[in-house]
Amino acid sequence: MRAAAASAAEEMFAAAAADGVSMTVLSGFRSYDTQVSTYQHWVNVNGQAGADRVSARPGYSEHQTGLALDIGDASGSCNLAECFADTPAGSWAAENAHRFGFIIRYQPGQEAVTGYSPEPWHLRFIGTKDAADMAGSGVKALETFYGLPAAPDYR
Ligand SMILES: [Zn+2]
């Protein structure tokens, strides 16, 4: 990951641990080639339309920017599933990630704007100021927060 995002992630994991929450890293930086196989995996499982709701086409993944991170709960339950939001790590991240510059990038009810099903495990680093402003504003999609057009099919 990029240095700023990586050190913010380290601080976030330490703060979670101090609160008794064990968070794991499931995925950080992905190369183009890795994204080719990740996306192809979902095409094989769900077909292309299904894959597009849960995975980015190669060249379009936030994981390729070095600013995105998938987290899990140490229990392993609900990893990469929507119920992750209800695990200790998931609820801690929803409440605290912004303090470290991260946002929950794909939230419920935002699919028409972001193009993705909810992913309570996918964090995107935008810096502490913007993350705090966004959390304070109640806006749920980064596109809306930055005044960008909805991007339901940019992947
Ligand atoms: Zn992700």
Note down, in words, how this protein is organized:
Pfam families: VanY (PF02557). This is Carboxypeptidase YodJ. Residues 1-127 form the D-alanyl-D-alanine carboxypeptidase-like core domain. InterPro entries: DD-CPase-like, VanY-like_core_dom, VanY/YodJ_core_dom, Zn_M74/Hedgehog-like. Keywords: Carboxypeptidase, Hydrolase, Protease. The protein is an alpha+beta fold. It has a domain at 3-29 and 66-145: Muramoyl-pentapeptide Carboxypeptidase, domain 2, CATH 3.30.1380.10. It has 6 helices and 4 strands, in the order αβαβαβαβαα. It has helices spanning 3-18, 32-54, 88-96, 111-114, 128-137, 142-145; strands at 23-27, 68-73, 102-106, 119-125. Strands 1-2-4-3 form a 4-stranded antiparallel beta sheet. The longest helix is centred in the first third of the chain and has 23 residues, at 32-54. The radius of gyration is 15 Å and the shape is globular. The chain starts with a helix and ends in a 10-residue tail after the last helix. The model has no long low-confidence stretch (mean pLDDT 94). Bound molecules: zinc ion. Zinc ion binds at residues 27, 63, 68, 70, 122.
Q: State the low-pLDDT regions, or none.
A: none
User: What does the average pLDDT come to?
Assistant: 94
The SSE order reads HEHEHEHEHH
By helix and strand content, what is the structural category?
alpha+beta
- Count of DSSP E strands? 4
Cofactors, ions and other ligands in the entry: zinc ion
Rg measurement, Å: 15 Å
Give the number of helices.
6
CATH architecture name of the domain at 3-29 and 66-145: 2-Layer Sandwich
Spatial strand arrangement across the major sheet = 1-2-4-3
What is the C-level CATH assignment of the domain at 3-29 and 66-145?
A: Alpha Beta
Share of helix among residues?
A: 40-55%
Any idea what the shape is? globular
Largest sheet, in brief, is:
4 strands, antiparallel
